[in-house]
Amino acid sequence: MGSLGVEGRMDLYGSTDMHSPAPDGAIVHKDDRKKQFLLSDSGITLSSVKTSRTEVTELSIPWRDMIGGELKQMSKSGKGDNPSESFLVIHYVQHKVKDRTLRPAKVKISANGDHVIDWIRRIREHCAKVSGRPKKVLTIINPISGNREGPQIFSKTMQPLFQLAGIHTTVICE
User: Fold this and answer.
1) Domains and CATH numbers, the chain
2) pLDDT digits (tens, 9 = 90+) for 112-156
3) Closest C-alpha to 13, from 89, 126, 112
4) What does the DSSP 8-state code read for residue 95?
């Protein structure tokens, strides 16, 4: 999965004031192609910017499928002495139509750290408004079924997703 890089705010708003609120949308890059990133009342949309030679492609993530967003910091060279780059990682549920399964998926967007924090806050606000979304979950794990890996699978895979979604979990494993 490639990362997406945000173009400067000057292109969008004619201003370089980085202390203003993060925009609802931005032009980003993925695999050397421009994409439009948009936060709306219906969800998050990533769509290609129309050129004369390309078709418009779109990834729409409705709020009901959104797990959450997080800020990741990585140095540009992989070494600790260089300044770090901020990434917004959007986690969502991907629907596999062929076999009717749901899988966690993510999109990584490179952006200004202040904007990422504001976008994460707004993603959490929208996710909290989704009706039917639980705030607490009771999880019962059978520790001796299968290969006896139930507790490890839950703590490695599921618990981080619940934490990211802001869902408190109570785990019973006996």
Assistant:
1) 3-128 (2.30.29), 136-172 (no CATH)
2) 667 778 888 999 999 988 989 999 999 999 988 888 889 999 999
3) 112
4) E
